[in-house]
DNA sequence: CTGCAGAAGTGATATCTGTCACGTTGCGCC
DNA sequence: GGCGCAACGTGACAGATATCACTTCTGCAG
Protein backbone atom coordinates (compact mmCIF):
# COMPACT_ATOMS: atom_id res chain seq x y z
CA UNK A 1 0.00 0.00 0.00
CA UNK A 2 3.00 2.24 0.44
CA UNK A 3 3.14 2.81 -3.32
CA UNK A 4 -0.23 4.50 -3.27
CA UNK A 5 0.31 7.07 -0.56
CA UNK A 6 -0.21 9.87 -3.03
CA UNK A 7 -3.67 8.58 -3.86
CA UNK A 8 -4.58 8.28 -0.22
CA UNK A 9 -2.83 11.44 0.89
CA UNK A 10 -6.00 13.03 2.23
CA UNK A 11 -6.49 10.31 4.84
CA UNK A 12 -5.10 10.73 8.33
CA UNK A 13 -2.41 8.42 9.71
CA UNK A 14 -4.60 6.36 11.99
CA UNK A 15 -7.03 5.68 9.19
CA UNK A 16 -4.26 4.65 6.83
CA UNK A 17 -3.05 2.17 9.40
CA UNK A 18 -6.53 0.71 9.75
CA UNK A 19 -6.92 0.56 6.03
CA UNK A 20 -3.74 -1.39 5.79
CA UNK A 21 -4.83 -3.72 8.55
CA UNK A 22 -8.44 -4.30 7.54
CA UNK A 23 -8.28 -3.95 3.79
CA UNK A 24 -6.65 -6.13 1.21
CA UNK A 25 -5.30 -5.40 -2.20
CA UNK A 26 -6.91 -7.25 -5.07
CA UNK A 27 -5.71 -7.51 -8.64
CA UNK A 28 -8.31 -7.85 -11.33
CA UNK A 29 -7.92 -8.34 -15.04
CA UNK A 30 -9.52 -6.27 -17.76
CA UNK A 31 -13.16 -7.11 -18.31
CA UNK A 32 -13.67 -8.68 -14.91
CA UNK A 33 -16.94 -7.89 -13.17
CA UNK A 34 -16.45 -6.47 -9.69
CA UNK A 35 -19.96 -5.81 -8.60
CA UNK A 36 -22.85 -7.59 -10.18
CA UNK A 37 -26.26 -6.05 -10.55
CA UNK A 38 -28.50 -7.73 -8.02
CA UNK A 39 -25.73 -9.14 -5.85
CA UNK A 40 -25.32 -8.05 -2.23
CA UNK A 41 -22.46 -5.75 -1.31
CA UNK A 42 -20.11 -6.79 1.44
CA UNK A 43 -17.11 -4.63 0.68
CA UNK A 44 -16.31 -1.19 -0.48
CA UNK A 45 -13.36 -0.47 -2.69
CA UNK A 46 -10.96 2.21 -3.72
CA UNK A 47 -9.28 2.01 -7.10
CA UNK A 48 -5.49 2.09 -6.86
CA UNK A 49 -4.57 1.39 -10.48
CA UNK A 50 -6.48 1.00 -13.70
CA UNK A 51 -9.93 2.05 -14.75
CA UNK A 52 -13.27 0.74 -13.59
CA UNK A 53 -16.59 1.58 -15.17
CA UNK A 54 -20.03 1.52 -13.66
CA UNK A 55 -23.15 0.91 -15.62
CA UNK A 56 -26.80 0.23 -15.20
CA UNK A 57 -28.41 -2.82 -16.71
CA UNK A 58 -31.92 -2.89 -18.04
CA UNK A 59 -34.22 -5.34 -16.32
CA UNK A 60 -35.77 -6.84 -19.42
CA UNK A 61 -33.22 -7.24 -22.19
CA UNK A 62 -29.53 -7.34 -21.47
CA UNK A 63 -28.91 -3.80 -22.60
CA UNK A 64 -26.66 -1.74 -20.42
CA UNK A 65 -26.17 1.92 -19.85
CA UNK A 66 -22.90 3.61 -19.04
CA UNK A 67 -22.84 5.75 -15.88
CA UNK A 68 -19.31 6.82 -15.02
CA UNK A 69 -15.70 5.79 -14.51
CA UNK A 70 -13.67 5.27 -11.38
CA UNK A 71 -10.07 6.41 -11.69
CA UNK A 72 -7.23 5.67 -9.28
CA UNK A 73 -8.08 7.29 -5.95
CA UNK A 74 -11.81 7.05 -6.53
CA UNK A 75 -14.12 5.03 -4.33
CA UNK A 76 -17.32 3.32 -5.30
CA UNK A 77 -20.08 5.58 -4.05
CA UNK A 78 -22.73 2.92 -3.86
CA UNK A 79 -20.73 0.53 -1.77
CA UNK A 80 -19.31 3.30 0.43
CA UNK A 81 -22.69 4.14 1.70
CA UNK A 82 -24.14 0.72 1.55
CA UNK A 83 -23.51 0.25 5.22
CA UNK A 84 -24.16 -2.90 7.16
CA UNK A 85 -27.49 -3.55 5.56
CA UNK A 86 -25.64 -5.23 2.69
CA UNK A 87 -28.20 -4.02 0.21
CA UNK A 88 -28.34 -5.50 -3.23
CA UNK A 89 -26.58 -3.43 -5.80
CA UNK A 90 -28.45 -1.90 -8.67
CA UNK A 91 -25.46 -1.35 -10.87
CA UNK A 92 -22.62 -3.35 -12.30
CA UNK A 93 -18.94 -2.46 -12.00
CA UNK A 94 -16.42 -3.82 -14.45
CA UNK A 95 -12.70 -3.34 -14.86
CA UNK A 96 -11.97 -1.60 -18.16
CA UNK A 97 -8.25 -2.21 -17.91
CA UNK A 98 -6.23 -4.41 -15.64
CA UNK A 99 -6.72 -2.89 -12.19
CA UNK A 100 -5.64 -2.96 -8.57
CA UNK A 101 -8.20 -2.34 -5.85
CA UNK A 102 -8.13 -1.73 -2.14
CA UNK A 103 -11.03 -3.78 -0.82
CA UNK A 104 -12.44 -3.04 2.62
CA UNK A 105 -15.15 -5.02 4.39
CA UNK A 106 -18.15 -2.86 5.13
CA UNK A 107 -18.28 -3.66 8.83
CA UNK A 108 -15.43 -1.24 9.43
CA UNK A 109 -16.60 1.74 7.47
CA UNK A 110 -19.37 2.91 9.73
CA UNK A 111 -16.91 3.32 12.55
CA UNK A 112 -14.50 5.12 10.27
CA UNK A 113 -17.30 7.48 9.40
CA UNK A 114 -17.52 8.56 13.01
CA UNK A 115 -13.90 8.29 14.02
CA UNK A 116 -12.07 9.73 11.04
CA UNK A 117 -13.00 13.10 9.75
CA UNK A 118 -11.05 12.49 6.55
CA UNK A 119 -13.05 9.36 5.82
CA UNK A 120 -16.24 11.28 6.34
CA UNK A 121 -15.09 13.88 3.86
CA UNK A 122 -14.08 11.23 1.40
CA UNK A 123 -17.48 9.57 1.52
CA UNK A 124 -19.36 12.83 1.31
CA UNK A 125 -17.38 14.20 -1.59
CA UNK A 126 -17.46 10.88 -3.43
CA UNK A 127 -21.18 10.63 -3.12
CA UNK A 128 -21.70 14.17 -4.09
CA UNK A 129 -19.54 13.87 -7.16
CA UNK A 130 -21.27 10.74 -8.37
CA UNK A 131 -24.63 12.28 -7.77
CA UNK A 132 -23.67 15.25 -9.90
CA UNK A 133 -22.38 12.92 -12.54
CA UNK A 134 -25.64 11.05 -12.64
CA UNK A 135 -27.44 14.35 -13.01
CA UNK A 136 -25.20 15.25 -15.90
CA UNK A 137 -25.97 11.90 -17.47
CA UNK A 138 -29.67 12.58 -17.08
CA UNK A 139 -29.22 15.95 -18.72
CA UNK A 140 -27.64 14.32 -21.68
CA UNK A 141 -30.18 11.58 -22.16
CA UNK A 142 -33.07 13.93 -21.61
CA UNK A 143 -31.98 16.99 -23.52
CA UNK A 144 -29.36 15.99 -26.07
CA UNK A 145 -29.35 14.14 -29.35
CA UNK A 146 -27.14 11.22 -30.00
CA UNK A 147 -24.42 13.21 -31.78
CA UNK A 148 -23.83 15.39 -28.72
CA UNK A 149 -23.96 12.39 -26.46
CA UNK A 150 -21.43 10.54 -28.56
CA UNK A 151 -18.97 13.41 -28.40
CA UNK A 152 -19.49 13.66 -24.66
CA UNK A 153 -18.90 9.96 -24.28
CA UNK A 154 -15.69 10.05 -26.30
CA UNK A 155 -14.41 13.01 -24.36
CA UNK A 156 -15.10 11.35 -21.05
CA UNK A 157 -13.47 8.12 -22.15
CA UNK A 158 -10.44 9.94 -23.40
CA UNK A 159 -10.08 11.83 -20.15
CA UNK A 160 -10.56 8.76 -18.00
CA UNK A 161 -7.90 6.82 -19.84
CA UNK A 162 -5.67 9.76 -20.61
CA UNK A 163 -5.36 8.87 -24.26
CA UNK A 164 -6.57 10.31 -27.54
CA UNK A 165 -6.89 6.89 -29.11
CA UNK A 166 -10.07 5.09 -28.23
CA UNK A 167 -10.01 1.40 -28.92
CA UNK A 168 -13.65 0.56 -28.85
CA UNK A 169 -15.76 -0.92 -31.59
CA UNK A 170 -18.82 0.96 -32.69
CA UNK A 171 -20.84 -1.93 -31.34
CA UNK A 172 -19.42 -1.44 -27.86
CA UNK A 173 -20.04 2.28 -27.92
CA UNK A 174 -23.57 1.74 -29.16
CA UNK A 175 -24.27 -0.57 -26.23
CA UNK A 176 -23.05 1.92 -23.66
CA UNK A 177 -25.14 4.70 -25.12
CA UNK A 178 -28.10 2.42 -25.58
CA UNK A 179 -28.03 3.07 -29.30
CA UNK A 180 -27.21 0.88 -32.29
CA UNK A 181 -24.06 0.18 -34.24
CA UNK A 182 -25.39 1.72 -37.43
CA UNK A 183 -26.24 4.99 -35.77
CA UNK A 184 -22.82 5.26 -34.19
CA UNK A 185 -21.25 4.39 -37.50
CA UNK A 186 -23.04 7.23 -39.26
CA UNK A 187 -22.28 9.73 -36.53
CA UNK A 188 -18.63 8.72 -36.52
CA UNK A 189 -18.51 9.39 -40.21
CA UNK A 190 -19.86 12.87 -39.58
CA UNK A 191 -17.28 13.48 -36.88
CA UNK A 192 -14.57 12.33 -39.25
CA UNK A 193 -15.86 14.61 -41.99
CA UNK A 194 -15.86 17.49 -39.53
CA UNK A 195 -12.21 16.72 -38.82
CA UNK A 196 -12.85 15.93 -35.17
CA UNK A 197 -11.72 12.33 -35.27
CA UNK A 198 -9.72 9.97 -37.42
CA UNK A 199 -11.19 6.53 -37.92
CA UNK A 200 -8.89 3.65 -37.12
CA UNK A 201 -9.26 -0.05 -37.36
CA UNK A 202 -11.22 -0.96 -34.22
CA UNK A 203 -11.22 2.53 -32.82
CA UNK A 204 -10.94 6.26 -33.34
CA UNK A 205 -8.40 8.94 -32.61
CA UNK A 206 -9.60 12.26 -31.26
CA UNK A 207 -8.10 15.24 -33.06
CA UNK A 208 -7.62 18.56 -31.27
CA UNK A 209 -10.08 17.99 -28.43
CA UNK B 1 -41.87 20.60 16.67
CA UNK B 2 -43.71 18.44 19.13
CA UNK B 3 -46.41 17.79 16.57
CA UNK B 4 -43.96 16.05 14.29
CA UNK B 5 -42.44 13.53 16.66
CA UNK B 6 -43.78 10.67 14.60
CA UNK B 7 -41.86 11.90 11.56
CA UNK B 8 -38.68 12.23 13.56
CA UNK B 9 -39.18 9.14 15.65
CA UNK B 10 -35.96 7.54 14.44
CA UNK B 11 -33.80 10.29 15.91
CA UNK B 12 -32.38 9.95 19.39
CA UNK B 13 -33.35 12.35 22.19
CA UNK B 14 -30.20 14.43 22.26
CA UNK B 15 -30.40 15.00 18.57
CA UNK B 16 -34.03 16.02 18.75
CA UNK B 17 -33.12 18.57 21.38
CA UNK B 18 -30.38 19.99 19.19
CA UNK B 19 -32.69 20.06 16.20
CA UNK B 20 -35.16 22.05 18.21
CA UNK B 21 -32.46 24.42 19.36
CA UNK B 22 -30.56 24.93 16.13
CA UNK B 23 -33.28 24.51 13.57
CA UNK B 24 -36.26 26.66 12.78
CA UNK B 25 -39.60 25.89 11.28
CA UNK B 26 -40.44 27.67 8.06
CA UNK B 27 -43.78 27.88 6.32
CA UNK B 28 -43.77 28.12 2.56
CA UNK B 29 -46.62 28.55 0.16
CA UNK B 30 -47.37 26.40 -2.86
CA UNK B 31 -45.13 27.17 -5.81
CA UNK B 32 -42.41 28.79 -3.75
CA UNK B 33 -38.84 27.99 -4.77
CA UNK B 34 -36.77 26.66 -1.91
CA UNK B 35 -33.48 25.95 -3.56
CA UNK B 36 -32.53 27.64 -6.75
CA UNK B 37 -30.31 26.01 -9.33
CA UNK B 38 -26.95 27.71 -9.10
CA UNK B 39 -27.45 29.23 -5.66
CA UNK B 40 -25.23 28.21 -2.75
CA UNK B 41 -26.65 25.97 -0.04
CA UNK B 42 -26.43 27.11 3.56
CA UNK B 43 -29.10 24.99 5.15
CA UNK B 44 -30.46 21.54 4.98
CA UNK B 45 -34.11 20.83 5.46
CA UNK B 46 -36.54 18.17 6.46
CA UNK B 47 -40.09 18.33 5.18
CA UNK B 48 -42.66 18.31 7.99
CA UNK B 49 -45.84 18.96 6.03
CA UNK B 50 -46.71 19.26 2.38
CA UNK B 51 -44.95 18.14 -0.75
CA UNK B 52 -41.74 19.42 -2.29
CA UNK B 53 -40.48 18.48 -5.71
CA UNK B 54 -36.94 18.52 -7.03
CA UNK B 55 -36.08 19.02 -10.63
CA UNK B 56 -33.16 19.65 -12.88
CA UNK B 57 -33.08 22.64 -15.18
CA UNK B 58 -31.51 22.61 -18.60
CA UNK B 59 -28.68 25.06 -19.04
CA UNK B 60 -29.73 26.45 -22.39
CA UNK B 61 -33.47 26.82 -22.61
CA UNK B 62 -35.64 27.02 -19.54
CA UNK B 63 -36.85 23.44 -19.78
CA UNK B 64 -36.92 21.48 -16.59
CA UNK B 65 -36.85 17.86 -15.74
CA UNK B 66 -38.62 16.24 -12.82
CA UNK B 67 -36.46 14.19 -10.46
CA UNK B 68 -38.40 13.20 -7.36
CA UNK B 69 -40.63 14.30 -4.51
CA UNK B 70 -39.92 14.91 -0.86
CA UNK B 71 -42.70 13.84 1.45
CA UNK B 72 -43.06 14.68 5.15
CA UNK B 73 -40.15 13.09 6.98
CA UNK B 74 -37.88 13.26 3.96
CA UNK B 75 -34.69 15.28 3.90
CA UNK B 76 -33.07 16.93 0.93
CA UNK B 77 -30.20 14.65 -0.05
CA UNK B 78 -28.19 17.27 -1.83
CA UNK B 79 -28.18 19.73 1.01
CA UNK B 80 -27.67 17.04 3.65
CA UNK B 81 -24.36 16.17 2.25
CA UNK B 82 -23.42 19.55 1.04
CA UNK B 83 -21.32 20.12 4.08
CA UNK B 84 -19.50 23.30 4.94
CA UNK B 85 -18.24 23.85 1.44
CA UNK B 86 -21.60 25.49 0.64
CA UNK B 87 -21.45 24.22 -2.88
CA UNK B 88 -23.76 25.62 -5.51
CA UNK B 89 -26.80 23.51 -6.07
CA UNK B 90 -27.45 21.89 -9.41
CA UNK B 91 -31.12 21.33 -8.88
CA UNK B 92 -34.15 23.37 -8.00
CA UNK B 93 -36.58 22.55 -5.20
CA UNK B 94 -40.09 23.90 -5.23
CA UNK B 95 -43.06 23.47 -2.92
CA UNK B 96 -45.87 21.68 -4.72
CA UNK B 97 -48.36 22.35 -1.96
CA UNK B 98 -48.25 24.63 1.01
CA UNK B 99 -45.50 23.18 3.18
CA UNK B 100 -43.76 23.32 6.53
CA UNK B 101 -40.03 22.73 6.72
CA UNK B 102 -37.50 22.19 9.45
CA UNK B 103 -34.51 24.21 8.33
CA UNK B 104 -31.10 23.51 9.85
CA UNK B 105 -27.92 25.49 9.18
CA UNK B 106 -25.26 23.29 7.68
CA UNK B 107 -22.60 24.16 10.23
CA UNK B 108 -24.22 21.80 12.71
CA UNK B 109 -24.75 18.77 10.55
CA UNK B 110 -21.16 17.60 10.27
CA UNK B 111 -20.97 17.28 14.03
CA UNK B 112 -24.28 15.47 14.12
CA UNK B 113 -22.88 13.06 11.59
CA UNK B 114 -20.20 12.05 14.06
CA UNK B 115 -22.12 12.39 17.29
CA UNK B 116 -25.47 10.91 16.46
CA UNK B 117 -25.69 7.51 14.98
CA UNK B 118 -29.31 8.07 14.02
CA UNK B 119 -28.40 11.16 12.04
CA UNK B 120 -25.73 9.21 10.24
CA UNK B 121 -28.26 6.58 9.31
CA UNK B 122 -30.72 9.18 8.18
CA UNK B 123 -28.20 10.80 5.86
CA UNK B 124 -26.96 7.52 4.48
CA UNK B 125 -30.39 6.12 3.82
CA UNK B 126 -31.63 9.38 2.36
CA UNK B 127 -28.74 9.59 -0.01
CA UNK B 128 -29.00 6.03 -1.00
CA UNK B 129 -32.70 6.28 -1.69
CA UNK B 130 -32.31 9.35 -3.84
CA UNK B 131 -29.46 7.80 -5.72
CA UNK B 132 -31.62 4.79 -6.50
CA UNK B 133 -34.40 7.06 -7.55
CA UNK B 134 -32.14 8.88 -9.96
CA UNK B 135 -31.09 5.54 -11.39
CA UNK B 136 -34.70 4.61 -11.84
CA UNK B 137 -35.26 7.91 -13.61
CA UNK B 138 -32.35 7.16 -15.92
CA UNK B 139 -33.80 3.77 -16.67
CA UNK B 140 -37.03 5.37 -17.70
CA UNK B 141 -35.56 8.03 -19.91
CA UNK B 142 -33.10 5.66 -21.49
CA UNK B 143 -35.19 2.58 -21.97
CA UNK B 144 -38.85 3.53 -21.97
CA UNK B 145 -41.17 5.29 -24.35
CA UNK B 146 -43.23 8.25 -23.36
CA UNK B 147 -46.41 6.28 -22.68
CA UNK B 148 -44.71 4.18 -20.01
CA UNK B 149 -43.03 7.23 -18.58
CA UNK B 150 -46.31 9.10 -18.37
CA UNK B 151 -47.97 6.28 -16.46
CA UNK B 152 -45.00 6.12 -14.14
CA UNK B 153 -45.15 9.85 -13.58
CA UNK B 154 -48.84 9.80 -12.79
CA UNK B 155 -48.44 6.93 -10.40
CA UNK B 156 -45.64 8.65 -8.56
CA UNK B 157 -47.55 11.90 -8.34
CA UNK B 158 -50.62 10.13 -7.06
CA UNK B 159 -48.61 8.30 -4.41
CA UNK B 160 -46.75 11.41 -3.32
CA UNK B 161 -49.93 13.39 -2.85
CA UNK B 162 -52.07 10.49 -1.76
CA UNK B 163 -54.85 11.31 -4.18
CA UNK B 164 -56.26 9.77 -7.32
CA UNK B 165 -57.13 13.15 -8.77
CA UNK B 166 -54.21 14.87 -10.42
CA UNK B 167 -54.73 18.55 -11.02
CA UNK B 168 -52.06 19.29 -13.54
CA UNK B 169 -52.46 20.64 -17.02
CA UNK B 170 -51.04 18.67 -19.90
CA UNK B 171 -48.65 21.53 -20.44
CA UNK B 172 -47.23 21.16 -16.95
CA UNK B 173 -46.84 17.41 -17.27
CA UNK B 174 -45.17 17.83 -20.64
CA UNK B 175 -42.61 20.19 -19.11
CA UNK B 176 -41.72 17.81 -16.34
CA UNK B 177 -41.26 14.93 -18.73
CA UNK B 178 -39.45 17.11 -21.24
CA UNK B 179 -42.08 16.36 -23.83
CA UNK B 180 -44.75 18.50 -25.47
CA UNK B 181 -48.35 19.25 -24.68
CA UNK B 182 -49.66 17.60 -27.83
CA UNK B 183 -47.90 14.33 -27.11
CA UNK B 184 -49.25 14.20 -23.57
CA UNK B 185 -52.68 15.03 -24.89
CA UNK B 186 -52.63 12.11 -27.30
CA UNK B 187 -51.27 9.70 -24.71
CA UNK B 188 -53.87 10.81 -22.20
CA UNK B 189 -56.53 10.03 -24.72
CA UNK B 190 -55.13 6.53 -25.09
CA UNK B 191 -55.11 6.07 -21.33
CA UNK B 192 -58.70 7.23 -21.18
CA UNK B 193 -59.71 4.84 -23.96
CA UNK B 194 -58.00 2.03 -22.08
CA UNK B 195 -60.11 2.92 -19.06
CA UNK B 196 -57.11 3.78 -16.92
CA UNK B 197 -57.97 7.42 -16.35
CA UNK B 198 -60.90 9.78 -16.57
CA UNK B 199 -60.18 13.14 -18.08
CA UNK B 200 -61.25 16.12 -16.02
CA UNK B 201 -61.15 19.80 -16.56
CA UNK B 202 -57.55 20.72 -15.73
CA UNK B 203 -56.56 17.28 -14.62
CA UNK B 204 -57.15 13.55 -14.66
CA UNK B 205 -58.47 10.97 -12.27
CA UNK B 206 -56.70 7.65 -11.99
CA UNK B 207 -59.04 4.68 -12.15
CA UNK B 208 -58.16 1.41 -10.40
CA UNK B 209 -54.42 1.99 -10.07
C1' DC C 1 -74.43 38.25 -24.40
C1' DT C 2 -69.72 38.96 -26.23
C1' DG C 3 -65.21 38.43 -26.37
C1' DC C 4 -61.13 36.73 -24.56
C1' DA C 5 -57.73 33.63 -22.56
C1' DG C 6 -56.14 29.29 -21.16
C1' DA C 7 -56.45 24.60 -21.99
C1' DA C 8 -57.07 20.88 -24.86
C1' DG C 9 -57.91 18.01 -29.37
C1' DT C 10 -56.22 16.94 -33.88
C1' DG C 11 -54.28 16.37 -38.47
C1' DA C 12 -50.05 17.11 -41.25
C1' DT C 13 -45.34 16.98 -41.38
C1' DA C 14 -40.33 16.68 -40.13
C1' DT C 15 -36.65 14.67 -37.66
C1' DC C 16 -34.20 11.43 -35.16
C1' DT C 17 -33.05 7.08 -34.49
C1' DG C 18 -33.73 2.06 -34.40
C1' DT C 19 -33.99 -1.92 -37.51
C1' DC C 20 -33.36 -4.75 -41.58
C1' DA C 21 -30.86 -6.22 -45.46
C1' DC C 22 -26.94 -6.54 -47.80
C1' DG C 23 -22.35 -5.54 -49.30
C1' DT C 24 -17.39 -4.50 -48.17
C1' DT C 25 -13.06 -4.71 -45.78
C1' DG C 26 -9.40 -6.65 -43.21
C1' DC C 27 -7.30 -10.35 -40.92
C1' DG C 28 -6.13 -14.85 -39.25
C1' DC C 29 -5.92 -19.68 -40.30
C1' DC C 30 -5.96 -24.03 -42.73
C1' DG D 1 -5.12 -18.77 -52.19
C1' DG D 2 -9.54 -19.53 -50.10
C1' DC D 3 -12.46 -19.58 -46.19
C1' DG D 4 -14.67 -17.59 -42.28
C1' DC D 5 -15.39 -14.10 -39.08
C1' DA D 6 -15.77 -9.68 -37.01
C1' DA D 7 -16.25 -5.01 -37.79
C1' DC D 8 -17.94 -1.67 -40.55
C1' DG D 9 -20.68 1.15 -44.34
C1' DT D 10 -24.90 2.14 -46.32
C1' DG D 11 -29.47 2.52 -48.27
C1' DA D 12 -34.37 1.75 -47.26
C1' DC D 13 -37.82 1.80 -44.10
C1' DA D 14 -40.59 2.26 -39.71
C1' DG D 15 -41.81 4.12 -35.30
C1' DA D 16 -41.79 7.61 -31.80
C1' DT D 17 -42.14 12.08 -30.97
C1' DA D 18 -41.43 17.13 -31.69
C1' DT D 19 -43.48 20.87 -34.06
C1' DC D 20 -46.84 23.63 -36.60
C1' DA D 21 -51.32 25.15 -37.65
C1' DC D 22 -55.73 25.26 -36.63
C1' DT D 23 -59.99 24.26 -34.14
C1' DT D 24 -62.79 23.51 -30.03
C1' DC D 25 -64.13 24.00 -25.35
C1' DT D 26 -64.88 26.35 -21.02
C1' DG D 27 -64.95 29.76 -17.65
C1' DC D 28 -64.72 34.48 -16.71
C1' DA D 29 -64.74 39.64 -17.15
C1' DG D 30 -66.82 43.36 -19.05
Please explain how this structure is put together.
The structure is a homodimer of 209-residue chains. Chain A has 209 residues and is an alpha+beta fold. Chain A is built from 7 helices and 10 strands. The first copy, chain A, has a 4-stranded antiparallel β-sheet with strand order 2-6-4-5. In chain A, strands 1-7-3 form a 3-stranded antiparallel β-sheet. Chain A has a 3-stranded antiparallel β-sheet with strand order 8-10-9, with helices on one face. Chain A is elongated, with a radius of gyration of 18 Å. The mean pLDDT of chain A is 91. Chain A binds a DNA duplex (30 and 30 nucleotides) through residues 145-146, 169-171, 179-183, 185-186, 188-189, 199, 201-202.
> What percent strand of chain A?
15-25%
Runs of chain A with pLDDT <50, length 5+? none
Radius of gyration computed on alpha carbons of chain A = 18 Å
What is the SS-derived class of chain A?
A: alpha+beta
Tally of contiguous helical segments of chain A: 7
Mean residue pLDDT of chain A: 91
Chains forming the largest contact? A-B, 36 and 36 residues
- As a percent range, the share of helical residues of chain A equals 40-55%
Amino acid sequence: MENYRHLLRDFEEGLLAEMKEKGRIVDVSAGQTLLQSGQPIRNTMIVLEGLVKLFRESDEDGSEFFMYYLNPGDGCALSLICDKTFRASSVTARAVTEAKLLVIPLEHTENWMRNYRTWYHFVVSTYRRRYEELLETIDHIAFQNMDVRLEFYLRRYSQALGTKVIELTNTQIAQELNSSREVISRLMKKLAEAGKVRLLKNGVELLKW
